[in-house]
Amino acid sequence: MLVLSRQKNEAIMIGDDVEITVVDIRGDRVRLGIAAPQSVRVHRKEVYEAIRRENIEASRSKVKDLSDLDNLLGRSGKAGEKPKEDKNDK
Questions:
Q1: Those residues with Cβ within 8 angstroms of residue 11's Cβ, 6 or more apart along the chain or in another chain
Q2: CB 40 within 8 A of CB 34
Q3: What is the dihedral of CA 38, 43, 47, 48, to 10 degrees?
Q4: Which of 23, 38, 80, 89 is the most buried (most CB within 10 A)?
Q5: 14 has which bridge partners?
Q6: How far is C-alpha 49 from the chain's CA centre?
Q7: Average model confidence (pLDDT) across the chain
Q8: Which has the closest alpha carbon to 22: 36, 4, 39?
Q9: Helix (H) or strand (E) segment spanning residue 64
C-alpha cells in the first residue's frame, strides 16, 4: 500500500484520468473530491461490497427459480419454443 500525505486542496493522481483532492479536514474526518471519467465507477467501500454481495447472490439463481419465473410470466414450455397464442388475442 502506498501512503501519501496531503494537505487541504492538494491532490493525487491515479493514472492519467482520476484525480483525488483533499477538500476539507475536520478533526478525524477527511472529505475527498474525486474527478474521474463516467466510465470509472466510484463507490464508498461498504457500498461496493454490498453491490458485490448482491451480484454474487443473484448469480446463484437456481434453475427451478428461473422455471418458476417463466411460469409466472406465462412463458412455460420448452426452451426455444414460442409461447402458445391466446385465441382471444386475435
A1: 19, 20, 21, 22
A2: no
A3: 80
A4: 23
A5: 18
A6: 9
A7: 86
A8: 4
A9: helix 63-72
Kindly list the distances between the CA atom of residue 36 and the CA atoms of 47, 67, 71, 72, in Å, as whole numbers in the listed order: 18, 41, 44, 42
- Residue 69: the pLDDT is 78
CA distance 62 to 74: 19
Q: How many residues does the chain have?
A: 90
For residue 48, what are the contacts with CB-CB under 8 A and spacing of at least 6?
Answer: none
With a cut of 60, say whether residue 83 has pLDDT above it: no
Residue 76 pLDDT: 60
Q: pTM above the 0.85 mark? A: no
In contact, 3 and 15? CB cutoff 8 Å: no
